[in-house]
Amino acid sequence: MADLDTDTRIVYSIGTNLQGPRECQFRDPCFVAFDHHRGLLYVVDRNSHRVQAFSSLDGSFAFEFGSQGILGGQFQYPVGIAIDHNHDRIFVTDTDNDRLQAFSSADHSFLFAVNLRDSFPCPAGVAFDSVRDQLVIVGIEGQRVRAYRATGLRDRSILFDHHGLAPDEIMCNGSDAAVDLQRSRIVTTYTEADRIRVFSAIDGSFLFEFGSYGKQPGQFEFPQGVCVDNHGRIIVADGANNRLQAFTHEGHHISSFDCGRERPFGVAFDEHRGLIAFSTGNRVHVIGANQWLADTKFMWRPDRHRYAPRWIKQAVSTMTMIRSLVDESSMSMIPNELLFEIFSFL
After folding, report:
1. In what order do the strands lie in the sheet with 234-238?
2. How many domains would you assign to the chain?
3. Structure-derived torsion over alpha carbons of residues 41, 61, 38, 71, reported in degrees to the nearest 10
4. 3-state secondary structure at position 118
5. Domain co-membership, 40 together with 154
6. Amino acid 41: pLDDT
7. What are the CB-based long-range contacts (under 8 Å, 24+) for 168-173?
């Protein structure tokens, strides 16, 4: 059985066994999310009724927000989190308060709350679709996948609402959601049904599903978190099997990552640094995706790199100019995107 403390693929780990400084403690960390624009990793600390933020570079503590309660900015057992880069907001599903809360990405101040108690109780996983400017929420009670217009959240402007496929499946819990932007898809975990379902991000229609109960590759036992990497691969936190599993965008098994004695819950992909973060019982681990999944390469994408700090942009611009003047130098052999990544670590 693997030991994550000695696994060389682990870049860093956050959290202790409820010892040490408060910011190093977790009480049932749930879903996680990277804000690659600001170099942060967010962790929903469920039983502490708060969200903690850490540097995605080394895992050092940055800040926290939230406390237990029913007022705006307070939580009762929060679960899901999503980053809205279009409007500089952070969304958190305040599960036991049956609501969605929005916070500023700039200073993590409370913005507003959307009451879902009457129509969508116990919201769990949440994902933001930046292409269609919509927020996707998965409900714990029943097979519910709902999308809201990001600019109409306060009016609860619903784009689509999927209720499940058959009457005998109503009690299957929905857990998490991720968006495949390239293929206009929503990927969801259905925890008690031990499978993954994929929907159209355009109209919410069901596309296909994969997985079944078991311990073999491609099977699940209590899958919870899900994310999509920069190649469209689907990564699932296969909770009771103590592993992460990776699949093609069509649902074919690629590889598994053994988590040893630790049970993964949430999982997220950092497209800037090629990192995968996953939460466990009292810790969060970050692994280098390329050390587990082959060919996790960085791709030059203007929509990603335009958010880089100004000094990095200037450094890449300068190096690009130098190599254009000296065609036969070794510098001319380095792609622009690799230069960007090199300077981001300086």
Report:
1. 223-228, 234-238, 243-247, 253-258
2. 2
3. 80
4. coil
5. yes
6. 97
7. 169/143, 169/193, 170/142, 170/143, 171/142, 172/142, 172/143, 173/124, 173/140, 173/141
- With residues binned 3-state (H G I as helix, E B as strand, rest as coil), the percentages for the chain, rounded to 5, are 15, 40, 40
**Which two tokens mark 27?**
């009480």
At 8 the three-state DSSP class reads: coil
What is the structure's pLDDT at 307? 54
User: What does 277-309 look like in DSSP terms, one character per residue?
Assistant: EEE-SS-EEEEEHHHHSTT------HHHHTTS-
137 and 280 in a single domain? The answer is yes
Half-sphere exposure of 15 (CA within 13 A, CB side): 23
Contacts with 253 (C-beta within 8 Å, 6 or more apart), sequence order: 217, 218, 245, 246, 247
Distance, in Å, from the CA atom of 196 to the CA atom of 207, rounded to the nearest integer, reads 11
User: Chain-centre distance of CA 51, in angstroms?
Assistant: 14
**Cα angle at 45 between 43 and 47, to 5 degrees?**
170
Domain containing residue 340? 302-344
Q: Residues 16, 157: one domain?
A: yes
Which amino acid, one-letter code, is at 123?
Answer: P
pTM above 0.70, yes or no: yes
Q: What angle do CA 150, 275, 102 make, to 5 degrees?
A: 25
- Which residue has better confidence, 250 or 27? 250
Clarify whether residues 331 and 220 are in a common domain. Answer: no
Residue 345 has pLDDT above 60, yes or no: no
Give the SS3 label for residue 106. coil
Strands, DSSP E only, in 229-341?
Answer: 234-238, 243-247, 253-258, 267-270, 275-279, 284-288
Alpha-carbon Rg of the chain, whole angstroms? 20
Which tokens hold the place of 201?
């991000």
User: 2, 45, 29, 48: which is closest to 266 by C-alpha?
Assistant: 29
Asked whether residue 165 falls in the same domain as residue 287, the answer is yes
3-class secondary structure, 78: coil
| 191 neighbors 143 (Cβ within 8 angstroms) | no
* 221 and 74 fall within a common domain: yes
